[in-house]
Amino acid sequence: MVEISTSILNVKKEDATRIFYGLEVAHTDYFHIDVMDGKFVPKDTTELMKEYTNTVKQISNIPIDVHLMVENVKEFVDEYIGFNPNIITFHLEALKNEEEVKNIIEYIKQNGIKVGISVKPNTKVEEIYKFLPYIHMCLIMTVEPGLGGQKLIPETIEKVRTLKKYIDENGFDLDIEVDGGIKPENIESLKSAGANIFVVGTAIVESNDMEKTIDTLRS
């Protein structure tokens, strides 16, 4: 089943409440929270995303999908646990070794929250294979993380296909989420490759009819 996780990264403050209500009415499957620390990626969204998450939790019951693009993963996991998100995803590249990765996975799960691992476009997807039995989702970045509105990198579609094949061959039960440059005209190729959760930002929040756009993406 295709699910849409709407990124609110580029929503302007003066429009935030209106758009969040609009996304509720449009039946987005998730609010996607892009947490950036200005170190792991150049942009710093830490305060804005906390503010937006707090607003969303007050007005909506739609699940929250937290994507941590940060160096100090544990610090930001602690910040977002209190919001009771559906899932917290962190970057494999942010941690030093396998032990650190497994410790963060276990820590998030101990708090009753699902776990995702994300990889950048240049990271080989095989590097996350060893963690697949312990997590709920893999997030494949289809652009370089840090900025909204980029064009999808075509080579990342094959990365999704490789991951899906490995998941199926080994009988794992987990979602594949993709994030970056996703539009109605390229979503079908990603779906065919094996992705089932699609992070979409500007194509939804800047559209004239968010509900119609989400329905188009799903279909």
Give the tally of β-strands.
Answer: 8
Shape: globular
> What's the total helix number?
8
Unreliable stretches (pLDDT < 50, length at least 5) are none
Strand content: 15-25%
Helix content: 25-40%
Q: In total, how many domains does the architecture comprise? A: 1
User: What kind of sheet is the major sheet?
Assistant: 8 strands, parallel, barrel
Radius of gyration from the alpha-carbon trace, in angstroms: 16 Å
How much is the average pLDDT? 95
Structural class: alpha/beta
Under CATH at level 1, the class stands as: Alpha Beta
CATH superfamily: Aldolase class I
Largest sheet, spatial ordering of strands: 1-2-3-4-5-6-7-8
The CA-CA distance between the termini, in Å, is 10 Å
Provide an overview of this structure:
With 219 residues, the protein is α/β, with parallel strands linked by helices. It is 37% helix and 20% strand. The protein is built from eight helices and eight strands; from the N terminus they run E-H-E-H-E-H-E-H-E-E-H-E-H-E-H-H. It has helices at residues 16-25, 46-59, 73-81, 98-110, 155-170, 187-193, 202-205, 210-218; strands at residues 3-7, 30-36, 64-69, 87-91, 114-119, 137-141, 175-179, 197-200. The mean pLDDT is 95.
In short:
The protein has helices at 16-25, 46-59, 73-81, 98-110, 155-170, 187-193, 202-205, 210-218; strands spanning 3-7, 30-36, 64-69, 87-91, 114-119, 137-141, 175-179, 197-200. The protein has 219 residues and is α/β, with parallel strands linked by helices. It is globular.
